[in-house]
């Protein structure tokens, strides 16, 4: 579309998932295009913003980092309240983290905004060749059954990180 037609819409996006699956790294890769082997537990700021420019609109994500709050599950509802989108992250080399992701999805579907867009991200895909513990087909099937977007991502080599956010942006309802 033309520039005059380009609306800017703001959406709150949260990341959920077990500790150390790479939530902060995914955000840092997406926003700053950087990766650190020793990522600080939290990126510090309350939230970061990053825009995705689509054909007819610009989606501005307000991305909330959990700051380790996933350890305190009772605090989670406060954190995902009002979120238009959620990325539920697991680590493809950690089967337990996939169970964790499923339980986050269940909680979001029960208690999150009824129209929340949920994307499932199987992170650390760069390690999948030798250390995979979560089957791709199984994850895809689960995502399909539950109406989720699904991607295997790597914050380390940037695989599918931009795609993940762009596909979420495309699914969000744009105000006219
Ligand atoms: P969080 O607790 O979910 O926010 O996880 P972090 O973002 O702090 O990442 C935890 C650890 O996993 C760090 O040591 C990262 O360097 C590492 N990590 C994160 N993403 C990836 C990835 O895509 N590939 C690899 N190989 N390591 C990653």
UniProtKB/TrEMBL annotation:
Q: Pfam families, per this entry?
A: Ras (PF00071)
UniProt entry keywords in alphabetical sequence: Nucleotide-binding
This entry's Gene Ontology molecular function terms read:
GTP binding; GTPase activity
Under the heading SMART domains, the entry gives: RAB, RAN, RAS, RHO
What InterPro entries does the annotation carry?
P-loop_NTPase (IPR027417), Small_GTP-bd (IPR005225), Small_GTPase (IPR001806)
**NCBIfam families the UniProt entry points to:** small_GTP
PANTHER family on file: PTHR47978
What's the protein name? Answer: Uncharacterized protein
């Amino acid at each position: 579309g033309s520039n005059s037609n380009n609306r800017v819409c703001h959406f709150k996006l949260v990341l959920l998932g077990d500790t150390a699956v790479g939530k902060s790294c995914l955000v840092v890769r997406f926003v700053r295009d950087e990766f650190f082997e020793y990522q600080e537990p939290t990126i510090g700021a309350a939230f970061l913003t990053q825009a995705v420019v689509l054909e007819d609109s610009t989606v501005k994500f307000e991305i909330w980092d959990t700051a380790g709050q996933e350890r305190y599950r009772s605090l989670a509802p406060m954190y995902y309240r009002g979120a238009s989108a959620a990325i539920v992250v697991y680590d493809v080399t950690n089967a337990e983290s996939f169970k964790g992701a499923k339980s986050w999805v269940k909680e979001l579907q029960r208690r999150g905004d009824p129209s929340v867009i949920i994307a499932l991200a199987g992170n650390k895909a760069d390690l999948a060749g030798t250390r995979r513990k979560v089957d791709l087909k199984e994850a895809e099937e689960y995502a399909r059954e539950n109406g989720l977007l699904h991607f295997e991502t790597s914050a380390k080599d940037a695989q599918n990180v931009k795609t993940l956010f762009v596909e979420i942006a495309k699914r969000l309802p744009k105000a006219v």
